[in-house]
Write a structure and sequence with these properties.
The protein is α/β, with parallel strands linked by helices. The protein is built from 5 helices and 13 strands. A 9-stranded mixed beta sheet has the order 4-1-5-6-13-12-11-8-9, sandwiched between helices. A two-stranded antiparallel ribbon has the order 2-3. A two-stranded antiparallel ribbon has the order 7-10. It is globular.
């Protein structure tokens, strides 16, 4: 049975991962491997064993990682998680195995590739909770169209990382999806596809799974 790696949140004593991630991977017939920062010395071995990688959701990334002072970030993710996941991405990216970053995971991918974030979104659209529409304007990794997604974030991509391309935006211009050019599937989305069974989330999972070899 093939393994899909899923990174986890953490504090001083526990690691955290919403059960929806596990349920979703199991429903496709794969076995999840939960990855925590304590496993950093085995990143290369982990990369060899897993067939795909999911960077799960989390809090805010310390703005020092993209060269800014903290003006509006809170619930800061421990640096050890950020550093461990960046090292995992550094090793994993050259394998051409599929990568999916979800919410915090998308923001991490952007920072990993030298992008930056809006520390707090200030538009008329509520991104912190509820649902809103996005427009997909690129044929990869999803079909073009207008879709409804869930939303639970207050930060977003500002300066795009090197080699990244947006493929969808919300009505207020916030980037909701990115991918790395010239890679089979290195994708980040701002919503949480593991939490619902909407059309766009199902399509995303199908395309992710389809690229696992």
């Amino acid at each position: 049975m093939k393994l899909i790696g899923i990174t986890s949140s953490l504090d001083d004593k526990k690691i955290f991962l919403r059960r929806e991630y596990i349920s979703k991977i199991v429903s496709f017939g794969y076995l999840p491997l939960i990855i925590s920062s304590e496993m950093i010395n085995f990143q290369r071995e982990i990369t060899n064993e897993i067939s795909a990688l999911i960077i799960s959701g989390g809090g805010d990334i310390n703005p020092c990682f993209y060269g800014e002072e903290n003006t509006a970030s809170y619930n800061i993710v421990p640096d050890e998680r950020v550093l461990a996941e960046m090292e995992l991405l550094r090793i994993f990216i050259s394998t051409n195995k599929p990568v999916l970053g979800i919410c915090y995971g998308m923001q991490l991918i952007n920072i990993f590739l030298k992008g930056s974030l809006y520390q707090n979104i200030e538009t008329s659209l509520n991104h912190k909770e509820g649902l809103h529409k996005i427009e997909i304007f690129d044929d990869f990794p999803l079909q073009k169209g207008i879709f409804t997604v869930n939303s639970s974030h207050h930060q977003a991509v500002k300066r795009l990382g090197e080699g990244l391309k947006p493929f969808c935006k919300s009505e207020d211009g916030i980037i909701e999806g990115i991918y790395l050019k010239h890679h089979p599937f290195f994708v980040g989305v701002q919503w949480h596809p593991e939490r619902d069974s909407s059309e766009v989330s199902n399509l995303l999972w199908q395309n992710f799974i389809k690229r696992i070899k």
